[in-house]
Backbone:
């Protein structure tokens, strides 16, 4: 048994973090995102939008649904 307190080698962890792939998505400032990428290639903030439905049932449901968040296309009542 070692009497010294446990101190993880933070330098090794820092080196691994620096070597991680970067997201690279375009940010609002125009620079590429420097966040570490997940297995899908994007960071947690730029993970990508949801995919469109592929099955016929999902396509039919999507076409008949009313979209409540139309990006400001609804007229405001005064």
Residues:
């Amino acid at each position: 048994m070692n009497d010294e307190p446990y101190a993880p080698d933070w330098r090794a962890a820092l080196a691994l973090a620096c070597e991680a792939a970067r997201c690279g998505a375009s940010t609002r400032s125009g620079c590429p995102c420097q966040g570490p990428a997940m297995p899908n290639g994007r960071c947690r903030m730029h993970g990508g939008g949801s995919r469109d439905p592929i099955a016929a049932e999902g396509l039919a449901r999507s076409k008949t649904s009313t979209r409540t968040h139309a990006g400001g296309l609804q007229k405001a009542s005064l």
Summary: Residues 30 and 67 are 30 Å apart (CA to CA). The chain has a mean pLDDT of 77.
